[in-house]
Amino acid sequence: MLEMRPDCERCGTDLPAENAGAFICSFECTFCTECAEVLDDVCPNCSGELMDRPTRAKQLHEKFPPGTKRKFAG
User: Fold this and answer.
1) 1-57 adopts what CATH topology?
2) Average pLDDT over residues 33-39
3) 61 vs 70: CA distance, rounded Å
């Protein structure tokens, strides 16, 4: 199951699990649309391809909670 990290690692933008607009690599490094575009869809951590992250329906958050640990270091 995907971790569904809550923020962009590059700029800190909130990325709720139920919303579109997040991009991930195979290690689940997570970026917003704007940062993925600047990065040319290549993960700066592992050089993997950034792909659209699927959404998780809000009604499933209680049973399958998205991640809460923020990754933005800024």
Assistant:
1) Herpes Virus-1 (3.30.40)
2) 98
3) 17
